[in-house]
Amino acid sequence: MPANFAPSAADYLRILPEIIMTVAGVLIMLLEGWLGENKKRNLSVQTFVAFAAALVSAVAANGNPGLSFSNMLIVDGFATFFRVLVIAVGILSLFSATQYLKREHAESSEYYALLLFSVTGQCIMATANELIMIFIGLEISSIATYVLAGYLRDDKRNNEAALKYFLLGSFATAFLLYGIAWIYGTTGSTNLSTIRIALLTPGSETNVILAGTAAALMFVGFAFKVSAAPFQIWAPDVYQGAPAPVTLFMSAGPKAAAFAVFLRVFMTAFGPITSRWEPFVWSSALLTMIIGNFAALMQTNIKRLLAYSSIANAGYVMVAIAADSQIGVAAAMFYLAAYAFMNIGAFAVVTHFSRQGEKFVNVEDLAGLGWKQPVTAALFSIFLLSLIGVPLTGGFFGKFYIFKAALDANLVWLTVLGLLNSAVAAYYYLRILVVMYMKEPGEATLSLQPVGVGIAATLWISAVGTLVLGIFPSVVLNFATASSALVK
Amino acid sequence: MPTSYSDTYFPVLVQIVIAVIVAAALVAISFLLGKHVKNRVKDSPYESGIAPTGSARERFSVKFYLVAIVFILFDIEAVFLYPWAVVYRELKLFGFGEMLVFVILILVGFFYVWKKGALDWSHEAPGDSPYGDPDAAPQSSVTKNAA
Amino acid sequence: MPNAVPLSWYLILSAILFGLGVAGFIFRRNIITVFMSIELMLNAVNLTFVTFSYQFKQVDGHIYSFFVMVVAAAEAAVGLAIILTVFKNRSTLMIDDVNSMKY
């Protein structure tokens, strides 16, 4: 049977962002080899052009949505949303990385190539409609990020972060794969729509149990990747040890992409067996919020504090998944966008403040920042207030929509406990604000250099993003709601 | 035709038993019939060969590891050529184009590894190659990573 | 082949291998051994894929196991490089000694 596998032009247009970024990354590797070590050239501009072209083509691809490559990939509103989000995260981390690399005397084009490859993997995750594609995308993204986490290879903390990220990430991948293997065995397919149809047809009880087991295994894999409890143990060490701009990147990009596949797989393929997985997500969401917030209370290192904050925020998104509704999906999408901006902003401040070798990463070091650099401090305050969930910021509407979705799904107790958690969280974010404005400037603050162009761009874009999402939430929310009806 | 699972695998069991018997017999016969001489020459690793110059458990240069790591990649990538070769006739030119892209990507990797000096064994001085020996003190801040 | 080993035996074997991998990951202290445990888990997955593929008389599962192998190789390359840098900086391969970050 000579089937025609040759893709059409429309197929290629639908993965144009991935193609652009892959080609750019490969060209950068070639150039690096060609130019050699002595003629080191800063390739950040070329990387930016590639990202911008990918962003444009991702938006353009939404004009012609549909399945492509034998139903392996799907371009829909949901995919476009997350593609635009992860490419934007790539651009913002590129801005803050250029300055960091110069400061650490570690400029090299590999960093940019790895960033491009990682974002490519995340784009594939966002568009994947097939479990093996999800696996491939996840691995492209993860492997590049493992290397980035250990980027300064003579730095002990970088090594340790890379090692832990690598070992636990691979461990999680193995669980995910074992789940995929079992779902393939149960339903005979790895295509999400086919799996859904197979699970909808009344079958034997054994099949439902096997599918539930597979869903549980895949849940373990995804929970690791989004740092949800009880699989969050790696996150604090990795976030603390990795270079600040890499932490900025991996707390937003890979996390958003992992949530994208989490949502897509559990809402479409595993939709028919909701009752089996919902209790897991429910309890994991609660545990994640509690562990994240209460552990963050005790942190003195700001990177570690933001790592626990990142865990807690994953918990809020898990609440939206537990709601298991279209509103829940839309709320999760909105929150991930808002979280990306405020979190990137916060880590950009950390990147700026920590100085060479990341000397100043304690909360107390920030003393008096409000007087030394009022603009930076003001922008940082916007991010922190958004993380608390103060009105007029993206974080407020994100939490609002999530808890509304949870209430609509009758998850009253989860909502109440989630709101209490947000109140606890306010304490440690406010502590940073107090240190910044109420304390006398110390040695760390007084020796601070002015903000560089790259980090300033990251800060301003993130701040504008946070405020736009807070003041005109309907723009993004309407798109999210329209695309939350996933193709099933 | 054998009818049950155990029947199918009975010949394998017989073979295992025969193999064990033969192996045991060879060891036993040489032990019973051979002469037992014990001295330093007999106990050395290569009785009639060159005398060992030192312990075998030394630390190897990191270059061996690097080559091994690169080898794993290029070795395993070739696995995709097998399914491709099987369906090559059906895929025709499209399959050729796709595999061309794949091979070009591998070649880019090879070019990169080559240009980075990972295959270069001639520079012995530490610091000359970015992948110097593991015992050398860490060079200043890193400019590169090994992937 | 009507009289082959029952398929469930392969699945049980793969489950045992996967369990051994998980146990090795949790209880072993040498980084290389921990890494080998992960590879064992991935091989258990491959065995599962091939078993199901054989059962369904499809080739999909075989191809998936190729993908898993290739990705595992890429992971191994990056992982070994990371382990090498850790060893270079700390001269130890015991996982408990790699703990510079405590709150």
Written account of the structure:
The complex is a heterotrimer of chains A (488), B (147) and C (103). Chain A has 488 residues and is mainly alpha-helical. Chain A is built from 22 helices and 2 strands. In chain A, a hairpin with a 4-residue loop joins strand 1 (66-68) and strand 2 (73-75). Chain B has 147 residues and is mainly α. Chain B has a domain at 5-43. Chain B has 5 helices and no strands. By secondary structure, chain C is mainly α. Chain C has a domain at 29-93: Helix Hairpins, CATH 1.10.287. Chain C contains 3 helices and no strands. The longest helix of chain C has 31 residues, at 60-90. The interface between A and C is large, with 42 and 41 residues.
Rg of chain A from C-alpha positions?
Answer: 22 Å
Return the domain count of chain A: 1
Backbone shape of chain C: elongated
Major beta sheet summary of chain C = none
Helix count of chain C, per DSSP? 3
Largest interface: A-C, 42 and 41 residues
The level of helicity of chain C is over 70%
Listing every helix as H and every strand as E from the N terminus to the C terminus, the arrangement of chain A reads: HHHEEHHHHHHHHHHHHHHHHHHH
**What's the count of strands of chain A?**
2
> Globular, elongated, flat, extended or rod-shaped: what is the shape of chain A?
globular
Please summarize the sheet with the most strands of chain A.
Answer: 2 strands, antiparallel
Strand content of chain A is under 5%
Order of helices and strands of chain C: HHH
Largest beta sheet of chain A: what is the strand line-up?
A: 1-2
Helix/sheet category of chain A:
mainly alpha
State Rg of chain C. Answer: 17 Å
